[in-house]
Amino acid sequence: MSLSDPVIAVIGAGAVGGYYGARLAQRGHRVHLLTRADCRHIRQSGMIIHSLDGDFSLLPSQIHAYDDPRQLPKADLVIVTLKTTANGRLRELAGPVLKPDSVILTLQNGLGNEELLAELFGRERVLGGMAFVCINRPNPGEIFHTDHGVIRLGEPFGIVSQRAKKIAELFNSSQVKCEVLEDLTFGRWDKLVWNVPFNGLGAALDLTTDQIVGNEHGLRLARHLMQEVIAAAQPLGVRFNLTVIEEKIQHTQTMGAYKTSMQIDRLMHRPMEVEAIIGNPLKVARSMSIATPYMEMLYDTLLLIGATKMD
Questions:
Q1: 191 is catalytic
Q2: d(CA 57, CA 50)
Q3: pLDDT tens track of the chain, all 311 residues?
Q4: Domains of the chain and CATH, by start
Q5: From 191, 248, 259, 283, active-site residue
Q6: What does the alpha-carbon distance between residue 258 and residue 247 come to, in Å, rounded to a whole number?
Q7: Cβ neighbours for 85, distance < 8 A, ≥ 6 positions apart
Q8: How far is C-alpha 6 from the chain's CA centre?
């Protein structure tokens, strides 16, 4: 794999993949987006990014969009930002862009993505990462980046590799802060401590983050859910500091009236990432006989919403 001048493919380039792909393209990297919804617009008009780190736009010649994975060139680095609800299509969407030494970085939500990609394409290819970013895509080719933006990535097997460092350098040189983790498992569960309560409650109750943290009942629910995620992670050797819950709450208070990805999916009548974000950590807790009544209730509520036709 060449990372000095890589060909980069972003699979599932919605708001998150579109933003990070645009930042890499702004730096001058050869970026190819697989995006069904925005393909025609980007080909005709390029992209516009409104960002707290500086607005910018890209001409169609600076960023390449496709709606068919077979049209993309073979890539050195394949960044997967596909919603986990479409993971059943990973082979057909990512497979055509791979060459023998391609590296795959998943920036998807929840648990189980590295394992699935390893099963499909080989464990030696796969790195995992978490995108901590407040971002929305209200119109085709237009993205609003309102807060945060850091990526934390690492090897699934607990080492700090040279390729992880090189990928982090690509992002850091493209105005995206990126950190390499020594323990990807910790990183995954650390994000779940936030994602389970705020993505989950946001979708179940149709509330923005400020509405949850601005109410004593919302805060109580969020704290209970975070406590359960922490308890589920402990048998895996994941240890959090004593202040992690209050740190997550303070972090959320800076976001304003932010709609999480699952809340937006519900409002748009799209499948929600219930299994990856709630169901998979819940399975871990059940396998360890750890009581998680708040997660159980949230999970069942989200499944009920997903199974019910919404007005």
A1: yes
A2: 9
A3: 567 789 999 999 999 999 999 999 999 999 999 999 999 999 999 999 999 999 999 999 999 999 999 999 999 999 999 999 999 999 999 999 999 999 999 999 999 999 999 999 999 999 999 999 999 999 999 999 999 899 999 999 888 999 999 999 999 999 999 999 999 999 999 999 999 999 999 999 999 999 999 999 999 999 999 999 999 999 999 999 999 999 999 999 999 999 999 999 999 999 999 999 999 999 999 999 999 999 999 999 999 999 985 44
A4: 7-182 (3.40.50.720), 186-307 (1.10.1040.10)
A5: 191
A6: 18
A7: 270, 271, 272, 273
A8: 22
Residue 48 has which token pair? 């516009």
